[in-house]
Specification:
Elements (H helix, E strand, L loop, with lengths): L2 H13 L2 H8 L3 H15 L4 E4 L2 E4 L1 H25 L6 E7 L1 H6 L1 H11 L3 E7 L13 E4 L8 E16 H5 L15 E3 L23 E2 L3 H9 L4 E5 L9 E4 L5 E11 L6 H28 L4 E2 L1
Parallel strand pairs: 3-4, 3-5, 7-8, 7-9, 10-12
Antiparallel strand pairs: 1-2, 5-11, 6-9, 6-10, 6-11
Family: Belongs to the LysR transcriptional regulatory family.
GO molecular function: DNA binding; DNA-binding transcription factor activity
Keywords: DNA-binding, Transcription, Transcription regulation
Length: 305
């Protein structure tokens, strides 16, 4: 059995389509189809069933899947052994919510690439949960701990969020000294039916019943706040990137959330993935502490109570 055929089999199993697998492998869909047909002919078994939703694994494909994944892991291990214990190379894909992806991962990944020139890092910033079983990413950062699946879950660090507004907006309105003063202000937040994790439901913390300006992206929300559109709950670690944005009512409205690093259970046997997980986790902990420390050091000049 040819490993390259197994590689294509895995891509189709994870993408549920010939075209999706082709994009991952950088080959055309017709070639993917021919290679799958060849593998099925070699094995004398039907591996996929065509459905309206795409290509689903047939029972024979389900039985082949763990063996193909084991072969993939063994090949990865061989490459690790030849590259040396401290040299991280190859492609590495991280899935993360867009707040983390925008304000933390760029500088963390820049340092990783500087230390390991042979490493190629892809950051996928999407406001949803990633499916590691289908290898949408090698690792994912989440804001809550998953309760199901063959996963390795590690709590990375806590981070803080506060109500904030741009100083131009604050200067044009009466002082906000208590929760009751929030009445009549425009609120900025998530689109309610697009909140993919309960940990992102910030609005109730302010006592507001609704937000006038909403987005499924925390970065869009921050830019709206920066434009003076109103008040919103933001990550403390994002504020240093947004001149003029100030925290308010910090003694009355304060949220704490956590970042979790999620990996596929099989990756525990990969020393390369273990080293990458350690480096990524340490980078996130250090960067959150550094950015939040900037607000603490600036003290009252960075917030209004």
């Amino acid at each position: 059995m040819d490993w390259d055929d197994l590689r294509i089999f895995l891509a189709v199993a994870r993408a549920d389509s010939l075209s999706g697998a082709g994009k991952r492998l950088n080959i055309d869909a017709s070639t993917v189809g021919r290679r799958i047909a060849r593998l099925e002919g070699t094995l004398g078994a039907k591996l996929f069933v065509k459905t309206p939703q795409g290509y689903a694994l047939a029972p024979e494909g389900e039985r082949l899947l763990p063996h193909a994944e084991s072969a993939e892991l063994a090949l990865s291990g061989a490459k690790e052994a030849l590259s040396g214990p401290d040299n991280l190379t190859g492609q590495f894909r991280i899935g993360a919510p867009d707040g983390c992806a925008n304000y933390l991962l760029p500088q963390i990944c820049a340092r990783l690439c500087e230390t390991h020139p042979g490493l190629e890092i892809q950051i996928i910033a999407l406001p949803r949960v990633f499916n590691l079983s289908r290898r949408e990413a090698d690792m994912a950062i989440a804001v809550s701990q998953p309760q199901a699946g063959r996963l390795v879950v590690q709590r990375l660090t806590d981070y803080q969020l506060h109500l904030a507004a741009h100083e131009d907006y604050l200067r044009s309105r009466p002082p906000i000294l208590a929760r009751d003063d929030l009445r009549g202000h425009r609120m900025i937040g998530y689109i309610p039916d697009m909140i993919f994790d309960r940990e992102l439901d910030y609005l109730t913390e302010t006592g507001a019943e609704w937000a006038q300006l909403t987005s499924n992206s925390v970065s869009v929300q921050m830019q709206a706040i920066r434009a003076g559109a109103g008040l919103g709950i933001v990550h403390d670690f994002a504020i240093p990137f947004c001149p003029g944005v100030r925290r308010i009512l910090t003694g009355q409205i304060s949220l704490t959330r956590s970042f979790w690093l999620i990996r596929h259970a099989d990756d525990r046997r990969s020393q390369r993935m273990n080293r990458l997980a350690d480096a990524l986790g340490q980078g996130i902990r250090s960067e959150v502490a550094r950015l939040q420390g900037l607000l603490t050091s600036e003290g009252s000049t960075q917030e209004r109570t």
